[in-house]
Amino acid sequence: MNSKGHTRKKVIYPGVVIISLLKYLVLIAGCVMVLLPLLVIILGAFKDSKEFANTGVFELPASFRFDNFKTAFFEGKVLLGLRNTALIIVISCFGTILTGTMTAFVIQRFDGYFTRAIKGAFLLATLLPNISMQVTVFQIVSKLGLYNTMAAPIILYVGTDIISIYIFMQFLSQIPVSLDESGIMDGASYPRIYFSIILPNLKPAIATVLIIKFVSIYNDFYTPQLYMQDEDLLVVSTVLYKYISSTSIKWEVVFAGIIICILPTLTIFLFLQKYIYSGLVSGAVKE
Amino acid sequence: MKTKSRRNIGFSGWLKTYEGQKLYVSILFLVIPLALLLLFTFVPAFNMVVYSFQKRDQFGVDPEFIGLDNYKTIFTNPDYFITFKNSLYYLFGSFIQQALALLLASILCSKIYAKGLFKGVLFFPYLMNGVAVSIIFLRFFTKGNPPLTGEGTLNSVLMSFGAEPVRWMDPAKPFLVNCCLVFVSVWRYIGFDIIMYIGAIQSISPDLYEASDLDGANPWQRFRYIVFPSIKPIISLQLILAVKGAISVFEIPYIITGGNYGSSTFVIKTIETAFKKKQVGLASAMAVVLLIIIIIVTLIQQFVFKDEKDDSDAKRLRRAKKRLEKRGKA
User: Domain for residue B76, yes or no?
Assistant: First the structure.
């Protein structure tokens, strides 16, 4: 395509059609690559165990029965996993938003040596690789008696989430200080300013953080695997992992479980697509 | 004035002034986040460094100071050192991933039907649960356990084209196994890069395109002199993230192969050392090594970014024009 001689005059490319065909070809190839492995899972989830063993991966199931889904949902503890995950997400999000906005408010609005030092401390913390830190975090969590409780992941999700603080600070810097000052003129105290001026204005940032939090907690495997070994404390990721680490794997049920676990993400994605794109990008740029 | 009012109204009165409020609000609002930061980030980080010089078990009974021995083990024992080599697979994979993502992003930024649909499909794997993705690819590559007597997805496709089925997860071929795992990683994360690049490409001012049209640039020149320089900061950010990502790969190989077949990664090895072998000292040393690598990479990133911050659109426009002129004359 790099034709050196053609730069001076406007050239009509005879290959325009070919190029646009190629474009679609590349995109379709990409989508097939994404969908093919998923299609096999969907087909497999509808087959019964005999059928599963005897048919090829692309063969359609004899009929679309939901038995595997039922088994996965109730006996396979997917229901339990979804419930625990939801509980952890709700509490962690609430905690993150509260502590995150408060920290951002103080650091961003009360500029001084003290707050700058704290900002530096949070910045420094972003460097520490979360996963390998668990070697020593684990000792502290178990010393606090939090091992095998839901409090362990929740407190880690809230306490080590520094990206959210940065997103809140970024947003706060765009909320004019004159808004706070008008509050001061009216005699509002700082807590009042925080609750009635800052928090409502942070709504878009809160939405962004909620999305990032949901995705990261829902998909997190490592934290629950490490801190919640108890059968009653299984979350979505650990339920699925338990399936494949057991000795007799019923693949068709596992596949049904996978589909059930992906459905909430898919639903949220379909409804909040735009926000998810922008939310995740703004989360990454701050990293 | 401050001191005066303080004297007149007393301490509790002072707390009600805005100066006083600043103090108690700061304390009230920061006490929990700071406590958590200390307890779950800085204390463990400090412990990590201390433990890394010790021979230490899980419960920390009789830790013994052994100097740099743990670090020596990491860099001399091939069992540990191989994990660095394995992260090179992922690093190389993420270069391919970036190139592919850039290609797909520039296609998605041109005039295309069903843009949203393509974008959505390509992005969705990024949102999927990592365990689910790993199981999906267990099915993709292998026969798996006895009930899975049929060939996996990939082999079924190959066989429908008349090719011989391949044993992808062959313990004797660590190269192949690692390539398969890298493929899964690319499959999962490429959507995110596509979105990043689309954002970067869309933020280019339309004036630049117009100017290039006037100067008669072809699509390749447009990419080379306008799109590429504009998204260079994002590309370098992505490459830095790729290095960090390559050294901290964990989930996919841990679930698909359990780190067997020569596919162990640095983080898998760290976790194994800490929680299976219960050698907390050695694992801490590994964590410290990872930390140092990440700090170095981050410093490089800061350095690179400072260089490119003042690259404004206007400047780039001028430079792009100049280059085109030069080419036109040549």
Answer: no
**Same-domain check for residues B205 and B103:** yes
pLDDT of residue A4: 47
CA A94 – CA B62 distance, rounded (Å)? 41
Angle at B309 between CA B307 and CA B315, to 5 degrees: 100
Give the pLDDT band of residue B4 (cuts 50, 70, 90): very low
State whether B277 and B177 are in the same domain.
yes
Nearest CA among A200, A195, A157, A193 for reference residue A177: A193
- Contact assignment for B147 to A23 by CB distance below 8 Å: no
Provide, as residue numbers in chain A, all residues whose Cβ is less than 8 Å from the Cβ of B284.
135-136
Inform me whether the pLDDT recorded for B52 exceeds 80: yes
Among residues 29-68 of chain A, which lie with CB inside 8 Å of chain B? 30-31, 33-38, 40-41, 44, 49, 52-58
What's the average model confidence in pLDDT over A206-214? 90
Do B191 and B310 reside in the same domain of the chain? yes
Residue B203 in contact with partner chain A when CB distance is under 8 A: no
What's the distance, CA B276 to chain centroid? 26
Average pLDDT over residues A108-132: 85
Tell which A residues from 89 to 118 touch B, by Cβ distance under 8 Å. Answer: 99-100, 102-103, 105-106, 110, 114-115, 118
| Per-domain residue ranges of chain A | 4-65, 71-285
Residue A95, pLDDT above cutoff 90 = yes
Q: CB of A200 within 8 Å of any CB in chain B?
A: no
| Residues B35 and B102 both lie in one domain | no
> Does B161 contact chain A (CB < 8 Å)?
no
Query: Could you give the C-alpha distances from B255 to A82, A245, B224, in angstroms and in order?
Result: 20, 9, 41
A143/B contact by beta carbon, under 8 A: no
- DSSP annotation of B145 reads S
Q: Are residues B38 and B186 in the same domain?
A: no
Question: Does the ipTM surpass 0.85?
Answer: yes
The number of domains in chain B is: 2
Class of CATH domain A71-285: mainly alpha
The reply to whether A128 touches chain B by the CB within 8 Å rule is yes
What is the domain range of residue B32? 2-51
The enclosing domain of B219 has a CATH number of 1.10.3720.10
Given a cut of 90, whether residue A97 has pLDDT beyond it is yes
Share of chain B above pLDDT 90, in %: 25
pLDDT at B2: 45
Please tell me which residue of chain B has the smallest CA distance to A43. Answer: B153
Burial zone of A53 (CB within 10 Å; 0-12 exposed, 13-18 middle, 19+ buried): middle
Whether B242 and B324 map to the same domain: the answer is yes
Name the residue in chain B with its Cα closest to that of A154: B36
Question: Nearest CA to CA, how far is B301 from chain A (Å)?
Answer: 11
User: Does residue B138 sit in the same domain as residue B202?
Assistant: yes
Instruction: Encode pLDDT of A2-29 as tens digits.
Output: 444 444 555 556 677 888 888 899 999 9
Please name the amino acid found at residue B57.
Answer: D
Residues B151 and B208 both lie in one domain:
yes
